[in-house]
Amino acid sequence: MLSLLLVLVGGCQEEESVIKLPPDDAAITAASPVAQLLLRMASLDGSSDNVLDGSSCLSVMLPVTVIVDEITIVVNTTADFELVEEALDDDDDGEVDFVFPIEIKLPDHTPIVVSTAAQLENLIDACEDEDDFECIDVVYPLVINLYNANNQVADVLTIITDEALYLLLKQLSENTFLSIQFPLTLVSGGSTITINTYNELVTAILLSEDDCDDDDGTDPEFIQTLLSGDWIVDSFIDEGVDQTDDWENFVFNFNVDGTLTATDGNTLFTGTWVSETDDGELELTLQLNVGTPFDDINEDWTVLNYASILIELEDADDDEPEELKTLILKKI
Q1: What pLDDT score does 5 carry?
Q2: What is the pLDDT of residue 274?
Q3: The last residue of a domain, from among 127, 147, 169
Q4: Do residues 284 and 273 touch, judged by C-beta distance below 8 A?
């Protein structure tokens, strides 16, 4: 067992104090295979903006201005990716030209300013062989125990982003031991997985390789937002009809196991939720066990925008634009 016995001597009294560290099978180092898999999983996933740069190992920081088929498009949010896709559909060359300079992030989350198309292409070529796991993500926070054998200092860290996890693992010394506080939750292919051991963690990461392609997967920040609190319906418009009042006083709760509840204190609806990206488009599927008129909320919603307290959703049919639905959830 990794344990340290400290003998403290003061005056005529001798006192023994034990700092208990994780057992050998619960402690790993930065060089351990499981830590290396976590490092690859925490590296930057740049697949969500492939419509802009065509690279899954880089991410373009928004806002950015691009030109497609002589059309200038200001991309302020991920919702504007659709404007770029529409322009590309009408462009025989199918090229996106950036208005430089732009800022990007490398696989190790390092930001860098890019001034020319040639510089961007060189960076893409240099990182295209990065071997990350882009279709599996940690649901933060993640709590890690640390012990430095050199200075005999123990610490507990709460990690809340991929970048923080990546930097922690990258900067650990060889004499630092770490252990993960289980259980932890992963998201893969739109489903949540509860992990209780390192073996389960390794298996889940390795199995995720075939779960999605470059344009598919999950948005961990959006899932983290969903799980961060309770939500109410701020607006629900169905084919021009305001149905917001139908959901008055209902509170929605999204659970890490993919279940969903909605209650007004008297009536309880249960169901499921799934969030994933499809061809680069972020989606939220709601399925509540409800009847008319409440079942109108059961859709594969497109996420137009989201922030810490507001989520804007849309269900649109290009062939029948009059059947447009919009739903806005507000955190309370």
Answers
A1: 27
A2: 85
A3: 127
A4: yes
